[in-house]
Amino acid sequence: MTGFSADRLLLFGATGDLAKRMLLPSLCALDADELLDPRLEIVGTARSDLDDQGFRNFAREALEKFLPADRRSGVATFLNRLSYQPLDASSLEGFDKLAEKVGTPEQGLAIFLSTAPSLFEPTIRGLQHGGLSGELVRIGLEKPLGVDLASSHVINDAVATAFPEDRIFRIDHYLGKETVQNLLALRFANMMFEPLWNATHIDHVQITVAETVGLEGRVSFYDDAGALRDMVQNHMLQLLSLVAMEPPVNYDATAVRDEKVKVLRSLRPVEAAETVTGQYRAGAIGGQAVPGYDDELGKESDTETFVAIKAHIDNWRWKNVPFYLRTGKRLPERTTEIIVEFRRVPHSIFPGKAARGEPNKLVIGIQPEENITLSLMAKVPGLDRDGIRLRGVPLDIAMADAFAGPQRRIAYERLLLDLIEGDQTLFVRRDEVEAQWEWVDAIRAEWEEHALTPKSYTAGSWGPSAAIALAERDGVTWHE
Description:
Structural class: alpha/beta
Shape: globular
CATH superfamily of the largest domain: Dihydrodipicolinate Reductase, domain 2
Helix content: 25-40%
Mean pLDDT: 91
Largest sheet: 9 strands, mixed
Strand content: 15-25%
Number of helices: 15
CATH architecture of the largest domain: 2-Layer Sandwich
Distance between the termini: 41 Å
């Protein structure tokens, strides 16, 4: 914690898509649940030429569209918290008026910065110019934080000129998801798992982040980024580090992030043969025809929309345990899940192949449904005249059913509240970001050295056939 709960929140990019879909609905929901300090004032800023009432009208439309109807109580009260100041962040001129609009906080100011990477430096200079970077100010940074290690250094150095690390909150919205945090509870609050959570008992781990969508209005950004930078560098490596980390001494920002960065620094450099890249072609999703990537982009491109990686963590706990990572666009279904597959029993007492059964699997579903499934082997009912038969039986914990009382929340609700209150536990530290970029940059260098280009795959499939082979040559089948 950094010692103060803010009574002012300044939202950059306040009329953008993220604000409309996530930030304003999250803040309104928190307000309806009386989780925001009554004194908290929310100031929006962007290039759009709006006044206070114009921004409130914009926010009302966003809430009607993106906030569930059963969570809209108190919208009028929430809208009264909002005000707005137009700003061209590339120029210092408007920051004095912005500072005047924000006023003088009684307790502190929290800033949420969602802007193009090119605007980070001028925005930080503007905040300093306007007196909006003092000791009672903390800043939240939305990705992308650069396109490689070098550009990440530039952005982080710029932010560090105005804010020390304990007042910088780098956001990865996956860390706000309930099941992602439940992964820590599953591992460190249950004696049955932690003794088995190592190379002796675990055969491999799979992490899949699959999307059915294509470019969805992110044409220029995505073609410059690709799947490796857009998904693996942040979301997937954060999930991997939570699965693989050692037990922290306690649940606080420093202890948790110390253990995550140890994992990231232990990642073995990946060889080109341990990766597969792909780019989707025209196909069908849910029975609807969809165009290929080049068609959506309007030109030819060698940007990858799919990547599969076989990764290793070189430490005692995970020696020789492969981590299979897979992410892509225009895949058959939208899903994010972690599969921990345990080793087979060393000797089966039951005769016959049918009796041997399958290895136990722990499946942690993150989206679209948050659930945990543990598969166990059980005897198939019967008189067993031809021998005992075994079959996998799932033990399901659907989070929505297990905890029917608490409201299901948007990931940004928790992150915004933590930013306002100053809890950094679910935010990413600079050394984490740089360790992630260092590993990803090395993969891209391997691709360039071996002149690898993406393999084609049909939209609606699970990616190039080479991705299947990447796992199957180790005797592993992707969980689908």
